[in-house]
Amino acid sequence: MNTITTLTEFILKEERRYKNATGSFTLLLTHIENAAKIIASHIKRTGLVDILGKTGAKNVYYEDVQKLDEFSNKLLVDLLSESGQVGYLASEELPEAIEVDKKGQYNIFFDPLDGSSNIDTNISIGTIFSIYHNDGNLLKPGKKQVASGYIIYGSSVMFVYTFGNGVNGFTLDPGIGSFLLSRPNIKIPDGKTIYSINEGYYNMYESSTRKYLDTIKKEENITARYVGSMVADIHRTLIKGGIFLYPRYTKKPNGHIRLMFEINPLAFIIGQAGGMAVSDKKNPLDITPQKLEQRAPIVMGSKNEVEKYLEYC
Predict the structure, then answer these.
(1) What percent of the chain has a predicted confidence (pLDDT) above 70?
(2) How many CB atoms lie within 10 A of CB 207?
(3) Residue ranges matching CATH 3.40.190.80 in the chain
(4) CA-wise closest residue to 163 among 288, 21, 281, 291
(5) What fold is seen in the domain 194-310?
(6) Are strands 223-224 and 54-58 parallel, antiparallel or unpaired?
(7) What is the pLDDT of residue 14?
(8) How far apart are CA 30 and CA 129, in angstroms?
(9) What is the pTM of this model?
């Protein structure tokens, strides 16, 4: 008989491995889990209630704010603030970090609803989070992360996270309202030539990126897959292998993806699953951010595919 493990049980078991653990990390993850369940419930009702669509406002990055963005952001801020474990919160939807409690053990960075521009078209979207110890310094390199993860709201709701000891995936059972371990010890496959990039920008990419694309498209069994929702593209890459690219291009010479809200948490997961991530030939987790809203170019996925890309840089 298969043993059923819930997300909470799994986190508690992991935390017991550390002598000085107090249970605070489990409590923090439980609040994120609860927020994910509520967000998932609202997403599935978007066609039935007046929560779908744009607010008419722009976020700090001058992007349209969706109503679900606002709802998800406020929910995460409220629940995490009430957890009693948080020093500072930083959200992609807010212009600056929120001080919750200077003595709180953890700082959390999150994108409340990645890919939200796809809400109206029923494409998978997700919540991305990154957790650091709180020592008063918010601008730490990604290698200092305690844990990171994402929740993808698709045909099923999955909670994928790493505590720096491998990657595990949990699927929400709506019947009992619990996330159950469904993909233990995820390892990103090698040898799968699936590439994911916005080829609409082909003529604006650097020559090295264009040469790489021209070369791999001559290979046999090459497959292109691009959703446009980063959490969905990374989830597919994590499960099926291949490579995800969002390099710099003419309109975004410094890159488009946010270092602290998207790149760091997802690169941490990819690395823990045996994959590889690079930003300008460097490990993005080694970059010390200069500001919360910092962006960077990023390539991540199966190690062999990323190494192949680097041959052209």
Answers:
(1) 92
(2) 8
(3) 194-310
(4) 21
(5) D-Maltodextrin-Binding Protein; domain 2 (3.40.190)
(6) unpaired
(7) 83
(8) 13
(9) 0.92
3-state secondary structure the chain: CCCCCEHHHHHHHHHCCCCCCCCHHHHHHHHHHHHHHHHHHHHCCCCCCCCCCEEEEECCCCCEEEHHHHHHHHHHHHHHHHCCCEEEEEECCCCCCEECCCCCCEEEEEEEEECHHHHHHCCCEEEEEEEEECCCCCCCCHHHEEEEEEEEECCCEEEEEECCCCEEEEEEECCCCEEEEEECCCCCCCCCCEEECCHHHHHHECHHHHHHHHHHCCCCCCEECCCCCHHHHHHHHHHHCCEEEECCECCECCCCEEHHHHHHHHHHHHHHCCCEEEECCECHHHCCCCCCCCEECEEEECHHHHHHHHCCC
Averaged pLDDT score across all residues of the chain: 91
pLDDT tens-digit series, residues 28-78: 999 999 999 999 998 887 655 555 556 666 665 555 656 888 899 999 999
Amino acid at 32: I
Of 106-115, 119-128, 206-215, the poorest mean pLDDT is in: 119-128
Indicate if the pLDDT at residue 250 is higher than 50.
yes
Q: How far apart are CA 217 and CA 194, in angstroms?
A: 10
CA distance 82 to 120: 31
Work out the average pLDDT over 194-205: 96
Helices 303-310 and 207-216 meet at what angle, rounded to 10? Answer: 130
Backbone angles phi, psi at 144, to 5 degrees: -90, 0
For domain 7-183, give the fold: Fructose-1,6-Bisphosphatase; Chain A, domain 1 (3.30.540)
Where does CATH 3.30.540.10 sit in the chain?
7-183
Predicted confidence at residue 176, as pLDDT, reads 92
